[in-house]
Structures are given as structure tokens and as C-alpha cells.
Amino acid sequence: MQKVAVNEFVRRQIKGSGKTYSPDLSFEEIVKHAAARMDAGNFKEGYRKGIRIVSGSKEIAEKFICPFAKINENTELVSNMVQRRPEEEPYIQTRAVNAKPISTGKVEFILYGHDVLAENNEQTTEAEWELISIHAIPEGVDNLPMGPVTMMRNQLELPGGTSAHYSSDDWAESVHFWQQYAAVEI
After folding, report:
1. Are 103 and 68 in contact (CB under 8 A)?
2. With 0-12 CB in 10 A as exposed, 13-18 as middle and 19+ as buried, what is 181?
3. How do residues 98-124 score in pLDDT, each as one tens digit?
């Protein structure tokens, strides 16, 4: 059995999605790198057991586009109702339309264990771990907090969420960060 594979959910992270993407690497190349980095111990445990955050190498970080801009008084923001998947509730997504993305400082790969994905029948392979998200972190930022909409979906155990409970500090850090940054409409 393959140790790490590509979950179909991550394949939405392409140019124009407002999400981290690589113009140079295939998802299979990214998974190969994430598996090697995890095997070398370059990971931390995520917000619950069965979720790992794998740190990409400095060299590979340069191959990813960070989709975020720091908001200032000149930033034009546009919000739309969007829906990730048909079974999920729509939510309000805000994008910066006149900003340029910040340089990527580092990249993290979010891996979910097979058992965690199986809780909601979201596994798309038989691998032990699946890549579900890629996060290019803006240069100068140490920690990229989870978005409040994702946290809400998880904590309320809504469709598309993975059961979790967050502290008030986690919530405050998320809201504080996402009041300063926005994904760029590219």
C-alpha cells in the first residue's frame, strides 16, 4: 500500500482558484516530496490526531505561488457566495481584486490519515495518508492560521468538516490574521 497519495480534494488548487498552487509541479511530484519530508521527520501534528502538517523544503517552496496579499486602505475587496462541493453549505468568500500576491516564505502540506478521511467517506485512495491541502505561507509570516470558515465547518461538524474543537485563542488568532490578509483574485 502506498504511504502517501493525492486526495481528489487538493486537485482544486490550481491557477485561478485563489489557492496555493505550483505552475511547475504535478500533484504526484508534490506528494512524493511530502512523503520524503514526513519520513525525515519534518512534520508536526495537526489540530487533531491523524492530521499532519509537513514542512516543505526551502527549494520546493520557491515552486509555489502564495495567493495572499496584505490588506491596506487601497485594497479593493469583493465578496461572493461560493460553495466548495454540492453537499456543503455556501459561504461568503472575500478576495482582493487589485493586489499582487506576496512572495512565498515557506510551504506546508496538510496530510490526513486514512481513518480521519473515512469518518466522512472523504478518502479517495487506499493510502495511509492523503494530501488534502497545500499552504504557501507569505514571506515574513511564521504561522498560517486556519481560516475561520474552515474552523466553523469543523467545530460544528457540518458537511465537509472534520470533527474538531478549537480554543478561543485559536479563533482569535484566525480572525485577527484573516482581517489582515486576503486571497488575491488572480
Report:
1. no
2. buried
3. 999 999 999 999 999 999 999 989 999
Q: CA 152, CA 139: separation in Å to the nearest integer?
A: 27
pLDDT tens digit sequence for 66-100: 999 999 999 999 999 999 889 999 999 999 999 99
Cα dihedral 146→148→152→153 (10° resolution): -60
Q: What is the pLDDT of residue 1?
A: 58
For the chain, the domains span 4-184
CA dihedral 153, 47, 11, 150 (to 10 degrees): 20
To the nearest whole number, what is the mean pLDDT of the chain?
A: 95
Place of cell 516543505: 56
Q: Where are the beta strands (DSSP E) in the chain?
A: 4-6, 43-45, 51-55, 68-70, 77-82, 91-96, 104-113, 129-138, 181-184
Give the Cα separation of 108 and 104 in Å (integer).
11
Mean pLDDT of 23-34: 98
| Helix segments in the chain, DSSP class H | 27-39, 58-61, 114-118, 148-155, 168-178
Q: Helices 168-178 and 148-155: crossing angle, nearest 10°?
A: 150
- Residue 145: how many other CB atoms lie within 10 Å: 18
- For the domain made up of 4-184, give the CATH fold: YaeB-like fold (3.30.2310)
